[in-house]
Structures are given as structure tokens and as C-alpha cells.
Amino acid sequence: MYIAGAMDKPKTSFHALTVAEIRRETRDAVSIRFDVPDALAPHFTFKAGQYLTLRAEIGGEDVRRNYSICAAPAEGALMVAVKAVAGGKFSTYANNVLQPGDRLEVMPASGRFTAPFGAERALSYAAFAAGSGITPILSILKTVLHSEPASRFKLFYANRQSGQIMFAEQLAALKNRYMDRLEIFHFLSMEEDDVALFNGRLDARKCAEIVGLLLDPADLDQVFICGPEGMMLGAEAALLAAGVPAETILLEFFLSAGPSTAQSESAAAVVQAAAGRRMGILLDGRKSTVVFDAALGNILDSVRAAGMPAPFACKGGVCATCRAKLVSGEVDMKVNYGLTADEVTQGYILTCQSAPRGDDVVISYDM
Ligand code: FES
């Protein structure tokens, strides 16, 4: 499995961009297009499948979220889609409050849920998406169809109801335009189709059926998967069981489902045990000593509470914006969806997920 999420070193500087357009995509989702002035254009180039980190002050709180870009690079627009989630601070703000003309802080694109797309490629692609997981896949799909005339694409897209299908018109138009190279299969869990295969969720069993009926695993060069964690892991397991090589499968995690209760209890015990430990923190060329605050729960928040502007975005172990290098000592990392095995071997940690094991921990955000 290849987990997408982080890049070599996530770019962490924000730029203020004006919202040029907000379009309602479904009852509970909007797309937001930004105006990018010429002077900032070099900062906002992106690859299909990448995401932007947005920041806003909401109710006096610095709120940051990652949203995938739904445009293809060739379209010349910088645009993300935001689906409202229950209790979601940023998504509610974006859906109900944000207006064209408002300004948002935006970080340059990050993420490696992408591929070296190019006209010379003649590949067979497939994608599994659920809900707003379509967003990066739409960018990828448009890029493949526009820029790789000899490539083919199969999309398996799950939603609860037809009214919740994001970008439904755009997908239908693409299907008409590229009818010999694009196939789209919709799956609905709360509406009945005559064909039983298209009813229900994209769980492991359904994905296994798809792999047998609609997809030839031997004729598959690259697979993209984005949606809720359970759906992604189910699709991945079905593909692996059918013999699809792990290195051809890319997963994009938005937010982790969170650890199990047993894991939460042991993580809480680790955090309590770390209370009051002193850590050396290197940031922007300065070294400071910071005391781990168990009430805050992780190194990142202890560092920020000490007045050091350590970068972050998701705080969920996904984006790797809070990545730092462990120079000495040991830490416990609760979850890691953002670092590759290589980065972990090199000593990188996600500070939003980590607690120090002793008093000898030194961490550098500068490496
Ligand atoms: S802030 Fe995203 S992984 Fe830590």
C-alpha cells in the first residue's frame, strides 16, 4: 500500500487569496474558486490530486483544514470542494458564511496522491471514490482524459442518494465527451437500482464483486482510492487479493477514523506519563526548551502554547504539515498516515501525534 498525504517537506507558508466564486455543488457541498494574482501564481501551481490547506479565524480560533483541489492543472483555476460535516467548524463556515470577495489564508498545494501524468502514457486507470472523496479523483480523471489520449479510466463512485453526487453534471459531461475511454459506475446506499450490484456501499465485499465483474486486475496500471477509511481499506484489500500490485494503489486519507477505544486508553496513558517532560525544540534557527503539557495532549500544541509558531494543518496525523525531525531521544506516535516508512526510518515524526518518552527529546522543525 502507498499512502498519499505528505510531500518531501510540506510547504508551510500561507498567502491571503480572495474568493472569486462559490458554487453550490450539492445541498451540503460547495466549491470555492480563488483568485490568484500573477505575483502569487508561482506559489500555486499544483499536480492533479493535490490539496490546499485553508486557514480562517472562526469564533476567535485559528482553524485549518485540508481540501483537495477539484480542478485539473490544465484548467487554469484554483478550486477546492468543501462538504459540510456535522459539527465541522470550517466546513460549516465555508458552506454557510463564506462569500465571494472574502479572503482566506491558503497554503500552496501539497500531497502525493498523484502520478507523473503525460501524453506519452497509455495506461489503464481505475478509481474508487465515496462522497467528497471524488474531489481529488475528479482532478486526476480530467487530467488523464485531457492529457493522455491513449489512456482509459474506470470510476466507481459511491454515495447515499443521487442528490448527493458531487460534480454529477461534470461527470456526465465527461462521460459523453470521452465515451470510449471513460466508464463511470455509481453506487447508492439509500436508493434502489434494478441492478443489485449498484445498490449498497462500496465495502470490501462489493469491491471484491467489482474486481471480478467490472475490472480486470491484470489490465490495471494505476488505482486511486479516496473516501472514508473503511471503504478505502476494503477496496485496497479486494484489489490486493485479486493480485493487483501494492505499488500501483494510492490511497488518500482526509482524516483518520481515530484509534479504537483500547488504543485511546493506552495513548492517554502515554500522554499522562509524559507530563512535565522537558523537550529541546529547534524552530526557525532558535532553540528553546518546552515543557510537555499533558492537558494539550501532543508535542505540537505544547510547542505552540509556548509561543513558537510550529506549523500544522489537520492535527489528525494525515497531512504531515507538523512534521519534525527527532534529533535525540524517543517519542510515542499515536497514529501516522502522513509519513512514509522511509521518513520514519530517517527519524521524522508527526508532532501533532507525539509525546516524549524521556527528558532527552530534541526535535527540529528546521530539518
Ligand atoms: S498537522 Fe497534519 S499530521 Fe500533524
Automatic annotation (TrEMBL):
<dbReference type="InterPro" id="IPR017938">
    <property type="entry name" value="Riboflavin_synthase-like_b-brl"/>
</dbReference>
<dbReference type="GO" id="GO:0010124">
    <property type="term" value="P:phenylacetate catabolic process"/>
</dbReference>
<dbReference type="GO" id="GO:0046872">
    <property type="term" value="F:metal ion binding"/>
</dbReference>
<dbReference type="InterPro" id="IPR050415">
    <property type="entry name" value="MRET"/>
</dbReference>
<dbReference type="GO" id="GO:0051537">
    <property type="term" value="F:2 iron, 2 sulfur cluster binding"/>
</dbReference>
<keyword id="KW-0408">Iron</keyword>
<feature type="domain" description="FAD-binding FR-type">
    <location>
        <begin position="12"/>
        <end position="116"/>
    </location>
</feature>
<keyword id="KW-0274">FAD</keyword>
<dbReference type="InterPro" id="IPR039261">
    <property type="entry name" value="FNR_nucleotide-bd"/>
</dbReference>
<dbReference type="GO" id="GO:0016491">
    <property type="term" value="F:oxidoreductase activity"/>
</dbReference>
<dbReference type="InterPro" id="IPR001041">
    <property type="entry name" value="2Fe-2S_ferredoxin-type"/>
</dbReference>
<keyword id="KW-0411">Iron-sulfur</keyword>
<dbReference type="GO" id="GO:0050660">
    <property type="term" value="F:flavin adenine dinucleotide binding"/>
</dbReference>
<keyword id="KW-0001">2Fe-2S</keyword>
<dbReference type="InterPro" id="IPR036010">
    <property type="entry name" value="2Fe-2S_ferredoxin-like_sf"/>
</dbReference>
<dbReference type="InterPro" id="IPR008333">
    <property type="entry name" value="Cbr1-like_FAD-bd_dom"/>
</dbReference>
<dbReference type="Pfam" id="PF00175">
    <property type="entry name" value="NAD_binding_1"/>
</dbReference>
<keyword id="KW-0479">Metal-binding</keyword>
<keyword id="KW-0285">Flavoprotein</keyword>
<dbReference type="InterPro" id="IPR017927">
    <property type="entry name" value="FAD-bd_FR_type"/>
</dbReference>
<protein>
    <submittedName>
        <fullName>Ring-1,2-phenylacetyl-CoA epoxidase subunit PaaE</fullName>
    </submittedName>
</protein>
<dbReference type="InterPro" id="IPR012675">
    <property type="entry name" value="Beta-grasp_dom_sf"/>
</dbReference>
<dbReference type="InterPro" id="IPR001433">
    <property type="entry name" value="OxRdtase_FAD/NAD-bd"/>
</dbReference>
<dbReference type="Pfam" id="PF00970">
    <property type="entry name" value="FAD_binding_6"/>
</dbReference>
<keyword id="KW-0560">Oxidoreductase</keyword>
<dbReference type="Pfam" id="PF00111">
    <property type="entry name" value="Fer2"/>
</dbReference>
<dbReference type="InterPro" id="IPR006058">
    <property type="entry name" value="2Fe2S_fd_BS"/>
</dbReference>
<feature type="domain" description="2Fe-2S ferredoxin-type">
    <location>
        <begin position="277"/>
        <end position="367"/>
    </location>
</feature>
<dbReference type="InterPro" id="IPR011884">
    <property type="entry name" value="PaaE"/>
</dbReference>
